[in-house]
Amino acid sequence: GLPARVRVHEVGARDGLQNEKATVPTVVKAEFIRRLAGTGLTTIEATSFVHPKWVPQLADAEDLYPQVLDLPVSLPVLVPNERGLDRALALGARRVAVFASATESFARANLNRTVDEALAMFEPVVTRAKAQGADVHVRGYLSMCFGDPWEGPVPVPQVVRVCKALLDMGCDELSLGDTIGVATPGHVTALLTALAEADVPVSALGVHFHDTYGQALANTLAALQRGVTTVDASAGGLGGCPFAKSATGNLATEDLVWMLRGLGIDTGVDLGRLVATSVWMAAHLGRPSPSRTVRALSHQ
Ligand code: HMG
Ligand code: MG
Fold first, then answer.
1. Which pTM does this prediction carry?
2. Rounded Cα–Cα distance for residues 260 and 231 (Å)
3. How high does pLDDT run on average in the chain?
4. By alpha-carbon position, which residue is closest to atom 51 of ligand 1?
């Protein structure tokens, strides 16, 4: 059966904007997050405390984060290392995310580390974050769970190994990333089945699909059928990863909410307000949203 409720983990302000060529002013980002919070979304990833030269678009994290911290929503941020954790904690962040890779090629491209060196870098981050208090929540992203632009299809056991390592480290939740959008529903089912067989509780799993091949919704449905109730999406379908050629936008939050609403699954999100937010953001970015649902509902 399908779940009664799904938590949408909104990544538009982070995954969506990190790849934008033109610099988006900090005030526009703050207003974007404010408007997203006004749609009923409860988890809105705000930015990343990474090296500013690696992701220039998010170099304003220190300016942005205090501007949105008053919002009554969770505002997770990405932290690759202790330096990033220190920056996030100094501003009051209570939800942080480390981001691992299932493949050596992407670990090198994204983190300048091997897979295991990256895990060693995250270990003190997770330990120190959890030591801050019971209300601190740590997400572990895992990229390239299905296919990798350099290595091709990624074997399921290779993904399961890194998932286990992240959970053993103390991550509260994992997000299974299809960074370049090559997954198909059978592959999603195979990975979730293998994780269940490895005693990974499905309640600790989220899915993170990019929509390069138009499979993100089908993949999401396959994940829901396996008991997943946390789904990452980006308003208007913004997004991509600057370190993974061929990564396009995430599953659009509007497309997700449209499907879930049709299935009678509650998200708490006001679709009309969300579409209006993406149309507003598209005007700032100077191009229409790639989301089919945004286009259908806005005559964009
Ligand atoms: P490195 O060059 O190996 O860094 O990069 P280092 O540890 O050797 O440090 C070098 C210098 O950087 C030092 O300064 C550090 O202090 C500084 P120096 O002493 O030379 O003056 N530094 C920092 N400064 C500010 N904030 C920091 C920080 N860390 C070090 N946090 C590093 C290693 C991890 C830093 C770098 O590779 C990096 O920042 N990578 C970030 C990549 C990224 O953000 N990618 C996008 C997010 S992942 C994604 O999009 C996928 C996802 O959506 C899921 C999916 O779709 O699959 C999550
Ligand atoms: Mg992503």
1. 0.97
2. 11
3. 96
4. 143
